[in-house]
Design a protein that fits this description.
Strand order of the largest sheet: 2-1-3-4-5
Number of helices: 19
Radius of gyration: 30 Å
CATH class of the largest domain: Alpha Beta
Structural class: alpha/beta
CATH topology of the largest domain: Rossmann fold
Strand content: 5-15%
Length: 473
Amino acid sequence: MTSSVSEPTVPPKLLLVDDEPSIRQLLSYRLKREGFDVVLAENGREAVKRLEAGGIDLLVSDIRMPDMSGIEVLRAARQLDPDILGIMITAYASKETSVEALRLGASNYVEKGGPEFPAAVVEVVKNALEQRRLRQDRRQLQQENLLLKRTLGTAHQFSNIVGRSPEMAEVFRLVETVAPTTSTILVTGESGTGKEMVARAIHFNSPRRDRPFVALNCGALTETLLESELFGHMRGAFTGAAATKKGLIEIADRGTVFLDEIGEMTPMMQVKLLRVLQERKFRRVGGLDEIEADIRIIAATNQDLSKAVAENRFREDLFYRVNVINVHLPPLRERREDVPLLADHFLRRYAQQMGKPVTGISGEAMALLEAYRWPGNIRELENVVERAVALERTPVVLPDSLPPVVRGGAPKTEAAIDLPESGFQLEAHVESIERAYLAEALRRAGGVQSRAAEILGMTFRSFRYYAKKYDIT
C-alpha cells in the first residue's frame, strides 16, 4: 500500500514551563526555530491548566518554581496522559531530584547555565521524540504481526462451517467457487447464522490467505469512530488524536476487510466507502494524501438492503457495489437436519475446553433441541450447548441441563387472530403497535435511547430511525 505523495507532518507541541522570563524566551526561540510548536507557561499551576486542555506531546519544565515544582508538574502530566514525554531543567541538579524525575517517566534532565544550554535542550528534545517515534513504529509492527499470526493460527477451513442440509450444501459450493476471485461479496442472513465464519472461510481459501483478515462491526461505533477505525487518522485530526494511526484498510493491505452490519452505516460513511470501492483509494481523517487500498471487501447484513434502498436508508449505487456476489445463509429453523450435527460439534469443543467427560446428548435432549425454533440461530445453539456441558454431571447431556425455553419443546401454536369481517389497514395497525412499543421502551429506559434499543433487541441506529419516523421523544 503506497501513498501518492508524502504525508503532511504536524509539528510536535511542546509545553515550556519556567518562572524566569529570559529562559522562556531563549528556549522558545530556539525550539520554534527547530520547527516545534511551543506553548509557554510561567508557573506550575498555569502549566497544569494547559496540560488539562490536552494536545501536548512533550513537557519541558524547570524543577524549582515558587508554586509547584517541576516534579509535581510532571506527576500531574503523567496522570493526565501516561504517554507524555517529560524533560526537566534545573540549575540545582541533585541525584535525588534526577532519580525522582526519571522514575516519573522523564526522558532526561538538563542543567542550566553555559552557552551550550539551549542547544543541549534542543538535542534532548529531539532525542526524546525520536525514541518515542521508534517505540510507536515497533508497537505498530508488533500489532500487525500479532494480528496476522492470530488469524493465520486459526483454522478456517470449510469443515468448520457445519451442515449437511441442501441449503448449506449450496452455500459450500458457492463459497468454494467465489473464494479464489477478487470480487466483493455480500453475506446475508439473520443474526447468529455464521456470516463472519463464512467470510473467514472465503478469505482463508483465497490467494490473500497470507495477509490479514480484519473485521469491523459498523453498527457498534459512532460515525466518527467508525471513520477513524476504517481509514485511520492524522495526529491532531480531532481531540484525543495524539498520534497518527493506521486504519483497518491500511492494516489489511492486500488482505480482506469484513464489514459486519453494513446496513447500519450512516449516509456519510456510505459515500466514503463507495469511493474506496470505486477508486480503491482513501484518505485518513485529517489527512490530505490519497492512499491506495489493495483490499477485498466482504460485507454482511441481517437487513433487507433492497428494502433499505427503496426507503432511502441505503445508497443504491453502494448496494450494487457490495452485492456483486450474494451468499445467503438460511436460518437454523429452515435446516433442522443440521441441528444434531451442530450440537455434537459444539459439545466436543466445550467438553474439551472445560475438561469434562461429557461425550454425547441424550435422545430426549436432542429431540428438544430439534423441536426448538432457534430465533438466535447458531449462536444461540452454541450458547445452549456450552451451558449444558457446564451444568451436566453425567456423561451425556440430559434435558434438565437445557434452558427452560428449550425444554418447552415444540413451539406453541399461535393464538387465534381476531380479524374483523370488514378488514382493516394492516400497515397502520402495525405502525401503531411499533409506536406503542417504542414509546413504552423509552419510558422504561428513562428516556435513554440506547437502553430502550437494548430492551427491544434493536440497534441504536434502528431505534433512532423509528423514533424519528414516529416522532417519539
